[in-house]
Amino acid sequence: DYGAFKDDKDEKFNNATKLTGLILKYKNEKTIFQLQYQLSTQDRQYKNDSLDKTYTIFEDNQYAGKSHFADAFFSKGISKNIQWITGVDFRYGSYHQTYVSISKWGPYNDKFKDTFQYQTALYTSLLINDASNKWLLELGGRSNKHDRYGSNQTFTISPSYKLNETIRFMASASTGYKAPSLYQLSYNDALKPEQSFNTEIGMEYKTNPLFFRAVYYNRTIDNGIDYNYIDYNFFNYIFSVLFMWFWEICKL
To answer: What is the pTM of this model?
Structure first.
């Protein structure tokens, strides 16, 4: 920034993002198997060494990040009314960053050391419906193992009932788990993972040409992660509760 309504002479930077992926899929009448892999890399370089100085005399910011994601799942119809899904996944992320600057207030150097984290998971779910297709029930579970935070488990229960061709009622209860990102940990390595309990209940009304849906949602979060704009750091807040409801109307 060169001041009010002006861009700095070094207003450009280099940013390279690469995405590579592969999906293999097998399917027959009752069985599905899928394997997928994705690699993403990002390199960002910014250097301000213009001879035309403002508040910043020199600035050099170098960033390199990489993430791997692999997932394999198997789906099979156990019977006419029961579908079973099970799978495993692997997530890995790493990054490195250096920052050097000289301004009218003096030099500033910062370096985030090479860091990484990874997680493996096993998940499974059952989709159950009755012969008339009025009742639908989803039961799901997931077990995660994080290299920093250890093991944890989450679950999902989602029933729904179709009263007729026009009206459907639905509900769900689930737990959630979210580990801090590498970027957040670079500021505060004492952060704890977020844990949540979520419930919702709602109904849908569908008649040509209109669709109406109303949902009430509740979430309780322990150790939620937020950003403090006073000391410029991430922190865990102890407890929070979110209540929300929404509705939508649209044409089919």
So the answer is: 0.80
